[in-house]
Amino acid sequence: VPSNASVRILQGPLRGQRWVAGAATHGCWLGSYESEKQHAIADRLNEGNVFFDVGANVGFYTLLAAKYVGASGQVVAFEPFPGNVSFLQRHMTLNHLENVELFEAAVSDQAGTGKFSPGPDGCTGRLGDDGQLAVELVTLDDLTGSGRIPFPDVIKIDVEGAEFQVLKGAAKLLSDRHPVVFLATHGKQVKHDCLELLEGLHYQCEPLEVGVDPSKADEFVAIFDPPSA
After folding, report:
1. Which H or E run contains 205?
2. pLDDT tier for residue 1 given thresholds of 50, 70 and 90
3. How many helices and strands (H and E) does the chain possess?
4. Segment 21-56, tens digit of pLDDT
């Protein structure tokens, strides 16, 4: 399949949607990519919901959420790497998405400018002092608190090691609004810090994959669990 070809996704929740074959792993257009996560996120979304895709990459989960929140819902996608943004915008155009707002920025715990390293491929870029690319930094608390974007019902976070900074920059949002969080962690310390922060805000964090030992899991679903009166 030519890498620039527009193909139909073959199976899964996004079956029939348009995809650029060479945008990412072929599992995306085959429909097998992160199958369990696809279904878990789809099951949490309803018509009219707001979904934040933090670390949107080329837009696989942006497309998924846009389908399930419908015309009355909204997806807000955050992606700092220009190469990924280009593919994401093409996917939005191919699928005639009108319920997506795209921020070409990285989410962190402070607004400003940061350094970004694209990595060996578009899927492994990350913020870091050794980054060669200057990118805009935003925080979810700033954007929602100012009314620039609506409050989310569900957030997906996958940012190659900067997950704790994303959560710190969303602490008020999490504390006040309690969205469901799908969190991919990268590294033991990041995982520890993220889970500690979420649990401190009365979230219950369970591995995304059913039956996996939490100590060995990297991906979690965090759901607000209010303390007993």
Report:
1. strand 203-207
2. confident
3. 8, 13
4. 999 999 999 999 999 999 999 999 999 999 999 999
- d(CA 168, CA 185) in angstroms, rounded, equals 14
* Residue located via tokens 């209010």: 226
CB burial of residue 70 (10 Å; 0-12, 13-18, 19+): middle
**Strands, DSSP E only, in 99-185?**
100-103, 106-107, 112-117, 126-127, 133-138, 154-157, 180-184
Cα distance between residue 125 and residue 117, in whole Å: 5
* Residue 78 · residue 139 · CB < 8 Å: no
In order of 98, 151, 212, the CA distances from 75 in angstroms are 10, 11, 30
Q: Supply the pTM of this predicted model.
A: 0.95
Residue with tokens 């925080």: 139
Amino acid at 96: H
Q: Angle between the 82-94 and 60-69 helix axes, to the nearest 10 degrees?
A: 40
E strands within 56-143? 74-78, 100-103, 106-107, 112-117, 126-127, 133-138
